[in-house]
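ok trying this again, last paste got cut off
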Amino acid sequence: MRRLLQMIPVVLSVVCINFVLIQLAPGDAAIFLAGREADPAYIEAIRHQYGLDLPILTQFVRYLGQLLQGNFGRSFISGRPVLVVIGERIGPTLLLVFAGVGVAAVLGTILGAQAARRMGTPYDTTMSLLSIVSYAIPVFWLGLMLILFFGIKLRWLPTSGMRSVLPLRSALDRAIDVVRHLILPAVTLGVAYLGQYIRLSRSSVAEVMKEDFITTARAIGYDENTIFIKHALRNALLPVVTIAGLHLGFIFAGATLTETVFAWPGMGRLIYDAILGRDFPLLMGCYTIMAVSVVLATLATDVLYAYLDPRVTYR
């Protein structure tokens, strides 16, 4: 409960900082909406309609009052409520991030832990090389290469969007269609994170395996698999959980590069389009949702700490 109460000033501080930064950003939303060749009187009318002619402090107080009532305003470009626009993009982002980052976290932890058990072997060398390559590959380049090879040359998978243009009758066909569209962006996003989890879990498990309680467990007579799974791996997961919590905290930011390359209709692409369109209410709404998700992910990470390690207490 104390952490939940601490969320309030944190989120309000983030809202304040984001509002100031957006106001300082170059570009005029009224000119963008009206057009550069529009009549100055029409531009002023647009500016007055959206309250852009008011002092910045007045705009912030008005926005904060609406926000406390659960009103995120309306998008400048579409004219629809910001929460409605964001709600349409959260589902695709959740699907992409969990399919990409989630699988990368689980797979990377397993591969890295096994590398720690076999340090100095060819397997360990291979995992180290894989982690370096994974960390070094640019996301946009990998996405383009996958599109060229699997989408254009082999024609196995679709290259953009989340669904086919042609209507599909059954729910199973629609689900399969979404999965086919998901494979390339999920692989692209997962490869970008895989190397971090391999390296982190390898070093963490290797460090824990040197602890005195592991030596004691061996002296008692536990077999190596029990020692590794029950004692070493559980304690070594704390750093991995920390990084996973940070990654999932930015889940509503989506993966801007991946979503842009594959035209995936998620939050990252939404933020990118809002920046280009100077859509300030939509940007503020996205950043506020991101702030809340980061704080909640941090809270969930703290709770998971206490579950994984009984020595951790918050009393």
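PB: full thing came through this time. Residues 65 and 204 are 46 Å apart (CA to CA).
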